[in-house]
Write a structure and sequence with these properties.
The chain has 194 residues and is α/β, with parallel strands linked by helices. Helix content is 39%, strand content 19%. It has a six-stranded parallel β-sheet, sandwiched between helices. Helix 4 (115-128) links the parallel strand 4 and strand 5 (132-141). The relative contact order is 0.17. InterPro entries: Isochorismatase-like_dom, Isochorismatase-like_hydrls, Isochorismatase-like_sf.
């Protein structure tokens, strides 16, 4: 295993906010679960990270009970870390880098909630730390900000990350790559057996 899937802030805290109704993809759990299934199939490490703001009294305060994965997400399996963070990126206030180093991970796939905020920031920091990053845009979601629509924010995020900090991919593209790997693997076995 040299890859890990980082699921960023796909948590009930966001659903508890009025902005949830404006999210571009309120069904994000479906895309994230496809990535989780794909990562597990490949033997990749799956790490979930939840945003917390202890003592604030807002929906990210663990005392309020919303700092937990979205209910419809497939649950973490034993051995799949669930970390909490207090920074925008998943590295600064967690043990993520240590876990990845100990597991020999060199490549990260990132997805989650807010495309341009915690997911993008995690991709940028991960790239700076030397990880090969795949940013799966259709497994992220956001709402409009600063007069920009969610679609404009996603377009901007892809533009600033592409070929500088991350490879941009879709869930379907990654699934197709895995299918091709399986086909090549099956063909390789047939050739070596004959």
């Amino acid at each position: 295993m040299n890859r890990a899937l980082i699921v960023v802030d796909v948590q009930e805290s966001f659903r508890a906010r009025p902005e949830w109704s404006r999210m571009a993809d309120p069904d994000i759990a479906r895309s994230v679960d496809r990535l989780v299934a794909l990562a597990r199939d490949r033997g990749d490490l799956v790490v979930r990270v939840l945003h917390t703001e202890p003592g604030t009294g807002n929906v990210f305060d663990p005392e309020r009970g919303h700092v937990r994965p979205l209910a419809e997400l497939a649950p973490a399996l034993p051995g799949e870390p669930v970390l909490t963070k207090t920074s925008h990126n998943c590295f600064t206030t967690t043990e993520l880098q240590r876990l990845l180093t100990e597991a020999g991970v060199t490549a990260l796939t990132v997805c989650g909630i807010r495309t341009e905020q915690c997911v993008e920031t995690t991709a940028r920091v991960g790239s700076d730390l030397g990880y090969a990053i795949t940013f799966v845009t259709d497994a992220t979601t956001t709402d409009g900000v600063g007069g920009f629509s969610a679609a404009q924010i996603v377009e901007r995020t892809e533009a600033v990350l592409r070929d500088r900090f991350a490879r941009i991919a879709t869930v379907a593209e990654l699934e197709a790559e895995r299918a091709a790997e399986r086909t090549a693997g099956a063909g390789g076995l047939a050739v070596s057996a004959g």
